[in-house]
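**Sequence with structure:**
===
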Amino acid sequence: MAAQIKQRRPAGGKKSKKGASWRFTLDLTHPVEDGILDSANFETFLKERIKVNGKTGNLGNVVQVGRMKSKINITSEKQFSKRYLKYLTKKYLKKNNLRDWLRVVASDKETYELRYFQISQDDEESEADE
């Protein structure tokens, strides 16, 4: 029985570092459907602002930024931080005065989603009563 377990283990193998790539997705569905955010404009912002080797506008073949309807996909051959993507997204929202209404939330390991802040109705009703 133990011999069978040992045979299965090497089959999984590890990824070689040379072929590793980082893939992230930004889901802009809600703001794009409501018409308050332009996904094409955001895509160009990312292409202009993403730094590779400490320089902006140096994407080359290392980082690809693509857009499918209301989702933006970022693929990188070099190590790329998901947190850096969140930083750039927040910077774009602040630049377009959308930071007060939208927030960047991680929906899974490789995806960020733009969501609206939840404004409670209870506060507004209590103010109306007074």
